Amino acid sequence: MPAFYDVSYHADGTVAGMVSNNPNAPDKVKRQVEMNLSETYYPTTPLVPYIKATQDRVVLEIQRGCIRGCRFCQAGMIYRPNRERSLEYLKKCAYEMLASTGHEEISLSSLSSSDYSQLQELVCFLINEFGSKKVNISFPSLRIDAFSLDVMSKVQDIRKSSLTFAPEAGSQRLRNVINKGLTEEDILNGSGKAFQSGWNRVKLYFMMGLPTEKEDDIEGIAILSDQIARKYYEIPKEQRSGKVSIVTSTSFFVPKPFTPFQWARMNTSEEYLTKQHYLRDKIREQLNRKSIKYNWHEADLSELEGAFARGDRRISKVIYDAYKAGCLYDSWSEYFHFDKWQKAFRDNGIDYRFYTCRERDEEEVFPWDFIDTGITKKFLLREYRNAKAEKVTLNCRQSCAGCGAKSFGGGICYRSGANPEEVTNESTN
Ligand code: SF4
User: Is the bond preceding 81 in cis, omega lying within 30 degrees of 0?
Assistant: First the structure.
């Protein structure tokens, strides 16, 4: 409850400190974590609406947390450690949920489904058990490897479905900065195999404005899109299924609390637009430009998101004033009035770029520091420095990086050969 904490500020507007003003409010509020996800309640009889809803399927959460460690990803940090549900538990839930809802699709949900250690067994079970009953199986967040392609070709209509890759950055250098463990080779090999299996549509997701980004990294997005298209045309003409379609989308990077990039500077909307136009021109220079469609995100909306992501309690009045001025349903572009938001910031004497475009000092106290996610600030800072040094950190299955989550007493930390001393040496926050 933020009201239980009094905040003081430095003259430059940064937070000086936060103290509890209630005897029952601890200095730090520790995140509560359920470690055994195979012995918890799972909602196997969810409400089923009479109307057709977008999420018209059974959602089976196979694990929580992620072993990866992408430095921009808040979910990947705050849901540590990775905890898998057992195969038996998931089989039971699948039966119960399909029977109780009557849905004809089951979606395996997690931050990175390919990392679930028993994915092969689970998918084979679902196909054998429910495939003949015309139940579709969908897997968001899969890495495209031989196994995934084989499974997807069994459960999806290749002509209708497109493959999705999220390289996030256009160059290997920048992918190392963000610790995205996906190489150009992975992407090109994956696309090549997919094209040979009959796919001809690929969606690619990138972020612009990542820390240390240079023009070469942006141009890399256009080049990678083109390389994928070229991969398609390496297949003999008689074996191709029509033309290839590559949809390249960019969103603007928004630094988030509790991530290694919480110290980072965000780009201004003007910088974003310049980068977006640069990329559009670079895509137009590519050999296969007609096969590549470029989509982008609204820059103004991203800037606002940036202010909310790392804002503090002084922003609450801005939100209230904007709401009173008619700002509602802002995610629909026709209802988004940036001028009203800008006025609300001005009326409250707040420059939103104080929250977005300022690289934080390493010592700065953050408005969210009174929340203890179990991941230490020391680890996040080390990761921020590693990012600037373009140094990759191994995933939790390969080696423990000592993030602090081991203090919860379970999950991947106790299966990865992690060195306990690495964790106990860390101070909490
Ligand atoms: S303590 Fe080690 S193994 Fe556990 S989540 Fe953190 S980095 Fe991964």
Answer: yes
Q: What is the pLDDT of residue 429?
A: 39
The DSSP code sequence of 28-93 is SEEPP----TTSS----S----SSPPSS-SEEEE-EES-SS--TT-HHHHHTPSPEEPPHHHHHHH
Say yes or no: CB of residue 396 within 6 Å of ligand 1. yes
DSSP character at residue 365: B
Closest CA to 143 of 179, 125, 119, 122: 119
Q: Give the tokens for residue 143.
A: 């890495």
Q: Is 266 helix (H, G, I), strand (E, B) or coil?
A: coil
Is 331 exposed, middle or buried (CB count within 10 Å of its CB: 0-12, 13-18, 19+)?
A: exposed
What are the residues whose beta carbons fall under 8 Å from the beta carbon of 429, sequence distance 6 or more?
28, 369, 372, 376, 377, 378
CA 28 – CA 25 distance, rounded (Å): 8
pLDDT of residue 133: 87
Predicted pLDDT at 376: 98
Dihedral over alpha carbons 154, 157, 162, 163 (to 10 degrees): 0
Q: What is the DSSP letter of 111?
A: S
DSSP 22: S
**331 vs 214: CA distance, rounded Å:** 29
Torsion region of 12: left, alpha or beta (phi above 0 gives left; psi -120 to 50 gives alpha): alpha
- 126 CB near ligand 1 (under 6 Å): no
Distance CA(47)–CA(103), nearest Å, equals 11
For residue 391, the SS3 value is coil
Enter the DSSP assignment of 156.
S
Atom of ligand 1 nearest to the CA of 401: 7
Q: Which single residue is written with the structure tokens 């947390």?
A: 65
Mean pLDDT, contiguous 10-residue spans, the chain (429 residues) = 92 96 94 95 92 86 96 97 97 96 92 91 91 83 75 69 87 96 88 88 94 97 96 89 93 97 96 96 94 91 95 97 95 91 97 96 96 97 98 96 96 71 39
Contact 248, 294 (CB under 8 A): yes
pTM, whole model, 2 decimals? 0.92
Nearest CA to ligand 1 atom 3: 413
Gap from CA of 414 to ligand 1 centroid (Å): 9
Q: Return the pLDDT at 241.
A: 80
Q: Can you tell me the distance from the alpha carbon of 323 to that of 317, in angstroms, rounded to the nearest whole number? A: 10
